Amino acid sequence: MQDAVQDAAEDLAPGSVQDRTAPGPHGPVDVRVYVPEGTPLSALVWAHGGAFVLGDLDMPESHAVAGALQRAGHLVVAVGYRLAAEGTRWPVPSDDVLAAWRWGRELAAAAGVDAARTFLGGASAGGNLAAGAVLRLLGAGEEPPAGVVLAYPTLHAVPPTASPAAVRALATLPPGEERWEAPAVRAMYEDHVGGDLDGAPAAVTPGTAPLEGFPPSLVLVSEVDGLRGSAEEFSSRLVAAGVPVTCVLERGTRHGHLNRDEQGARASLRRIDTWLRAAPALTGPA
């Protein structure tokens, strides 16, 4: 793979956006590479959300996020993982994210990005897949990313009890808006694994897994979000495990706010840029 990645790196023109494929156990994985002008400040392998069944490389949560970070000076590899539909179930999406991570890490190295500035992240279900991939890397004794970026992730099949502030925020949603109530969340996870969750690997629900050794993390939380408790609980457990974590509540936002051109999304993109730039200082010992 290294020769192919080296060839790919040599073909990446500054300022370009290029569709490529990464080799994976289920066939080639679609990736889209966003190359900044000049030497990249960092590299981020990024997975979009969509409840495991929706989303693609063209949705704002993938394309707009990656493009904004590219313009800020970062190399981004967006992952078009296989969706949980038409017979595709876990671990296929997770395997795709892992394959894209390994390919993107090699591409970043070939492009001159140090491993200490190479990150993995995702939004919503993509955040689940990113966190799960890290757990799988740790379990296999592989080097994890230098850090992890999670935007309003879903990490529990049974959402943690919401805080009073989260309950008040959710009550402001108009009728008909998705509230991500517990039965819907569990059904999403059961569809993802293709059956009952009993005995599912820890990577399926990273919010309930041991987190010792997890990389330093940036967790962005939507204020009005039925999944808010998942992100906040995960952040608390990272702290308890001794993992450096920056958890930010993005005021005035709903779940999936990176998919919308709004003030909260722009603020979150600035936070991601700042966090990536500050590495490795932010990703040092707690």
How would you describe what is shown here?
- The structure is a single chain.
- The chain is of the alpha/beta class and 286 residues long.
- The chain has one domain: Rossmann fold (3-Layer(aba) Sandwich).
- 35% of the residues lie in helices and 18% in strands.
- The chain has an 8-stranded mixed beta sheet with strand order 1-2-4-3-5-6-7-8, with helices on both faces.
- Strand 3, helix 2 and strand 4 form a beta-alpha-beta unit.
- Helix 1 packs across helix 3 and helix 3 packs across helix 4.
- The longest helix has 19 residues.
- The radius of gyration is 17 Å and the shape is globular.
- The model has no long low-confidence stretch (mean pLDDT 94).
What is the average of the pLDDT values?
A: 94
Radius of gyration, CA atoms, in whole angstroms: 17 Å
* Shape-level CATH architecture: 3-Layer(aba) Sandwich
Extract low-pLDDT stretches: none
Shape: globular
Classify the secondary structure makeup into a structural class. alpha/beta
- The count of strands amounts to 8
Number of helices: 8
Strands of the widest sheet, in order across it, are 1-2-4-3-5-6-7-8
The ordered H/E elements are: HEEEHEHEHEHHEHEH
Strand content: 15-25%
CATH superfamily: Alpha/Beta hydrolase fold, catalytic domain
Question: Into which percent range does the helicity of residues fall?
Answer: 25-40%
- Quickly count the domains: 1
CATH class equals: Alpha Beta
Terminus-to-terminus distance: 35 Å
What would you call the quaternary organization? single chain
Give me the CATH fold name. Answer: Rossmann fold
